[in-house]
Design goal:
The chain is an alpha/beta fold. Helices cover 42% and strands 18% of the residues. It contains 9 helices and 7 strands, in the order ααββααβααβαββαβα. A 5-stranded mixed sheet has the order 1-2-7-6-3, sandwiched between helices. The radius of gyration is 20 Å and the shape is elongated. The N and C termini lie far apart (77 Å). The structure holds zinc ion. Zinc ion binds next to helix 2.
Length: 230
């Protein structure tokens, strides 16, 4: 068969049998309309949860363990653009159905320090927010920025976590947050200290903070909660 005919037949085949879109999480199996395959959805053990962090309402999609933890790691450290797109879609669909979030005015992605942004090439929280916006029409506002580099929170004690992020964020001039419900978006909530640092900043400027996260660690123990108040 000559080359032109072969190319033509291949094009015809694609037209008649378009390639099946693959799962946005594993990239291996055919995706369901929700963007991921059944196997990934089962492994994630999705369970929409509400948690109050010092009086602020926070929502999350799956436990930060097993497959969910692997996914978050791949999204952050292996240029997981497709993963962020898919998890953002999940979060948008869940947020759209959550009555407590109906009053949200803007999405505020957790900012990344310029140093880490340069290394990673993208901010996973901003990607999540952009894709939440894709299905749940709320504007994304990058009104909060990091004013200094902070250490990674993992491996720090609760008190160290609090100190690490205290005063590390600022509101950009020109943004009016008064009476606006701001949904802080991030990949994972652990001790909640980073979320609290931004929530308090937003509140200082008259806004009403809430939070949405792809993954969560389980509720902290009593002694952890005591330490967190220090
Ligand atoms: Zn999959």
């Amino acid at each position: 068969m000559n080359r032109t005919l072969s190319n033509w037949l291949q094009a015809l085949e694609h037209l008649l049998l378009p390639p099946v879109p693959l799962c946005g999480l594993c990239g291996e199996r055919a995706r369901l309309p929700v963007g991921a395959c059944k196997s990934c959805l089962d492994s994630l053990a999705i369970s929409w949860r509400k948690r109050e962090v010092q009086g602020y309402q926070c929502f999350s999609l799956f436990p930060y363990q097993g497959y969910g933890r692997d996914l978050v790691h791949r999204m952050k450290f292996q240029s997981g653009y497709e993963i962020a797109v898919t998890l953002g879609l999940f979060l948008g669909l869940a947020a759209r159905e959550e009555p407590a979030l109906a009053k949200v005015d803007i999405l505020v992605p957790m900012p990344l320090s310029p140093g880490r942004l340069e290394i990673r090439g993208f901010n996973q929280a901003a990607l999540l927010a952009d894709n939440i916006k894709g299905v749940w029409k709320r504007p994304v506002s990058s009104c909060v920025l990091r004013t200094r580099e902070t250490k990674s929170q993992s491996g720090l004690s609760l008190i160290e976590r609090k100190r690490n992020v205290q005063g590390a964020f600022a509101l950009l001039p020109g943004f009016d947050l008064r009476h606006r419900t701001c949904l802080i978006v991030d990949d994972v909530i652990t001790s909640g200290h980073t979320f609290l640092a931004i929530a308090k900043l937003i509140e200082d400027y008259g806004g009403k903070p809430m939070g949405i996260f792809a993954a969560r660690t389980e509720i902290l123990s009593r002694s952890d909660l005591h330490a967190e108040k220090l």
